[in-house]
Amino acid sequence: MKSRLFILTLFLMIISCKAQVIGTLEQFEECASRTNHDEGCPDLENITYVKDTNNRLNQFVGTWKGNHDGKQYEIYFEKKVQFGEDIKWDRIFGRMIIKNNSGNIIYNSFNESDQNISFFGRNFQNRVYIMHFVGNYDCLESGNVFLETKINNPNEMTLFYSQDKDGLLNPAKCPNFSTFVSLLPTQKMTLTKQ
Question: Which UniProt keywords apply (predicted)?
Answer without folding.
Answer: Signal
